[in-house]
Design goal:
Mean pLDDT: 84
Number of helices: 13
Structural class: alpha+beta
GO molecular function: acid phosphatase activity; metal ion binding
Protein name: Purple acid Phosphatase, N-terminal domain
Strand content: 15-25%
Radius of gyration: 24 Å
Largest sheet: 8 strands, mixed
CATH class of the largest domain: Alpha Beta
Number of strands: 24
Helix content: 25-40%
Domain Purple acid phosphatase N-terminal: 61-149
Keywords: Signal
Domain Calcineurin-like phosphoesterase: 186-375
Strand order of the largest sheet: 12-11-10-22-23-24-19-18
């Protein structure tokens, strides 16, 4: 290229950069995000208080992380201590003073520079009971924290998408150093992460646990992870932010390994996952693991390892060891039936093709994913063959260019429409037969008809015997939002990108699984009420 041409190109790039900075006001960020201090949650001094606390937390990732145990009678613990504290202890009991409390066995090993990680398991816990625990950091006992076991016959948990604490780093104001930028980003993202957890808890205070779709944190070692994955610590400040919400001292979290978690060993230092020693699906962060809760088995796949044969072995062994479960739920990071920018990546299509027949083979009912920082719902019918390997190879899996008609009855499941309601309400007997309220029918209850119409219009029902429901969660911290694809895929039943964080409350009984997704700030619903029945 001639010098004159190079000079002109440089000027154009410089002008464009200045214009972009002026329009956006931030450096380098190509994705939307949520600025914490501008949220409703930040009012009345909450943001300022958080920033003050953050100054105390940020250099010490010593917070406790609870995870589900192998079943509802167990809870796992993991926490950091400094190198001077080699004999950490933890006690648990059913009174706040921990009289007659049990001292748990603690396993202590080296973590990242300057830290040890400590792990313990509480077993034989009674259901529907309050427990208290305290542990030591640097030889000093912490305050007493409360945890409550729940009834596994009917329980609720919250499902959230990528927190990816520190990802808003790309949107910090110009002039910040890298360390300052990470510090500010983590403070921002952890505040929003806390707001989402608090909103979910305020919605349902009886939460049994939390499930994340992966990418707890942002930073990873892409250059020499093979040599340094055990000691990489540039993301410890992000784990400090992730673990900062006080609710995480009382509610266990079942994390999925995301691509940002996968290359660092300290994921496994912070989270004491159950049934994780098989080695199937392993990366530097850890492997596939599972737990049961009542009649449900939760299979947590590390799909950053693309060896699908290992994932099938893991599922087969886990399912064969728990033959009496009613529901099978898989959580994994990559959204193989999402509607965001990643959903057309070659590795996602390959996973979609390879995993779908395995999920069908082992009667999985629900798959929870993240990765794309958008919301999507897809029900893939068992007789739908266009995602099989042969169809993918011939290209017949291609996206539909037309917008899906949301009002029709889709072959993926039963979805009520206003037209259907209109037809039903012409005959009150038929409508009220659906509600099983014949006594109200005799009194001519127009109110009951209206209630049924509204419930049906706001609800989509799927039969677990006819396919698998896939849910892709949006960001739970607002640290980054991706765009939806311009054309909605034909497998997508609903999708959303409002650049707002959200959470999904999942309610499980032996007869059905019910899902409701809400925006963190407004509390408004993202999608209809979703019900999966046996």
């Amino acid at each position: 290229m001639h010098r004159k041409a190079k000079a002109i190109k440089a000027v154009v790039i410089l002008c464009l950069s200045i214009w972009l900075s002026a329009v956006v006001g931030f450096a380098a960020g190509n994705d939307d995000w949520t600025e914490a201090k501008k949220t409703i949650s930040a009012t009345d001094g909450a943001w300022e208080d958080w920033c003050k606390q953050w100054e105390l937390w940020k250099d010490s990732p010593l917070q406790m992380a609870l995870t589900p145990g192998m079943n509802e009678s167990e809870i796992n613990f993991s926490w950091y201590s400094t190198k001077e504290d080699k004999k950490s202890r933890i006690r648990i009991g059913d009174n706040e003073q921990l009289r007659d409390g049990s001292t748990l066995i603690v396993t202590t090993k080296k973590a990242t520079k300057g830290y040890y990680y400590n792990q313990a398991v509480a077993t034989n816990l009674d259901i529907n009971k309050t427990y208290y625990y305290s542990y030591t950091i640097d030889g000093r006992w912490t305050k007493t924290y409360k945890i409550q076991t729940k009834n596994p016959a009917n329980f609720q948990f919250v499902f959230v998408g990528d927190p990816q604490i520190g990802s808003s780093y790309d949107n910090i104001p110009d002039g910040e150093s890298g360390k300052q930028g990470q510090d500010r980003a983590v403070c921002n993202d952890s505040f929003n992460w806390n707001s989402t957890l608090q909103a979910a808890y305020n919605h349902v205070k009886s939460l049994s646990f939390i499930v994340t779709a992966g990418d707890q944190i942002q930073s990873r070692n892409l250059k020499d992870s093979e040599a340094n994955y055990k000691t990489f610590d540039k993301n410890e400040i992000e784990y400090a932010g992730y673990l900062s919400p006080v609710l995480l001292r009382s509610i266990p979290v079942a994390t999925t390994i995301g691509n940002h978690d996968s290359l660092s060993g300290n994921y496994s230092y912070h989270f004491n996952n159950p049934n994780s020693k098989t080695g199937y699906g392993a990366t530097y962060a850890g492997a596939d693991y599972y737990f049961t809760y009542g009649d449900t088995i939760f299979l947590m796949l590390n799909t950053n390892n693309t060896n699908v044969e290992e994932h099938e072995k893991f599922i087969r062994e886990a399912v064969s060891s728990n033959k009496n479960v009613t529901w099978g739920i898989v959580a994994m990071h990559q959204d193989i039936f999402g509607s965001g920018e990643h959903s057309e990546d070659e590795n996602i299509i390959a996973l979609r093709t390879a995993l779908l027949p395995i999920l069908r083979k082992y009667d999985i009912n629900l798959v929870l994913t993240g990765h794309d920082h958008t919301y999507a719902r897809a029900f893939i019918a068992d007789d739908d063959t266009k995602y099989d390997a042969e169809a993918v190879e011939t290209g017949s899996f291609a996206n539909s260019t037309s917008v899906v008609n949301q009002g029709r009855v889709r072959n993926q499941g039963f979805e009520c429409s206003r037209k259907m309601i209109s037809a039903l309400t012409m005959n009150a007997r038929k409508v009220l037969a659906f509600t099983k309220s014949y006594s109200l029918m005799e009194r001519g209850s127009e109110h009951m008809i209206q209630l049924y119409a509204k419930a049906c219009d706001d609800t989509v029902r799927y039969s677990s015997g006819k396919g698998i429901l896939f849910i892709t969660a949006n960001s739970s911290s607002g640290s980054k939002y991706y765009k939806l694809l311009e054309n909605q895929q034909d497998y997508v039943g609903a999708r959303s990108q409002e650049n707002q964080s959200s959470y999904t409350i999942i309610d499980i009984t032996k007869e059905r699984i019910q899902l409701n997704t809400f925006f963190t700030e407004s509390g408004k619903k993202v999608d209809k009420t979703i019900i999966i029945t046996k």
